[in-house]
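tool_call predict_complex ligand=zinc ion
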Amino acid sequence: MSDKPFEYDRKRAMKHEDFENCIVCGRGMMHSGMPIFYRVTIETMGIDSHAVMRAHGLELQFGGGPLAARIANAMGPNEDLGLPIGDAHKTLLCHDCATGQGTARRSADVMYVFGLAAERAAKANPEKADG
Ligand SMILES: [Zn+2]
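tool_result ok
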């Protein structure tokens, strides 16, 4: 049995230069003393409507419904239905803002964080925000 409290993946670890302030409150990740924070990855995805129609057509050929969908997935080409648009953007959220505890004036809701992350990504990559 390991004497470490938990195992972690060093490939996903962060160096000092990877840190940024909390996207909600703008403070550091340890400002409240809680040694937990969250790294959130936000990706914009688009539906490939033609692939969805092909998948749905195959499902109908197998009679429709959840079982037909599973059969169609196994028998069909299993196409990509959701496609990434642009780059993934990672941002950090302190424990207080993520949980609404401690000194946070407000807890983060998903759409609020999404809007802030999109603004930060647009500032970091101004040429990509135009399209
Ligand atoms: Zn915060």
